[in-house]
Amino acid sequence: MSDGDNITQLTGADFDEFIRFQNRSFDYPPQRGLDWMVPTMYCATDWHMRCNYALRRNGTLVGIVGLYPITWRIGRATLRIAGVGGVSTEPQSRGTGVMGIMLEH
Asked: What is the mean pLDDT of residues 7-32?
């Protein structure tokens, strides 16, 4: 990580910036974006948004990784795991090590 890098857990207040970033990163139009396609997952609540970690480089959002909690029950065992999803990097920042930084974090 460089001096200008900061990784934070997102909140509901970050939703508008988050959804614009995700739609741009995955090349979805705003009117038919991820919040339209998967409204149960992409919501402007703290509960939904805290599953997402963002890397800001000098204040600018450049990468997001989602860690979504899952409870699996196998027989009598209960496993708490996380699914990884919504992995995205600002197109201009691809190839600069953003995901390596995020995944190491």
From this structure: 92
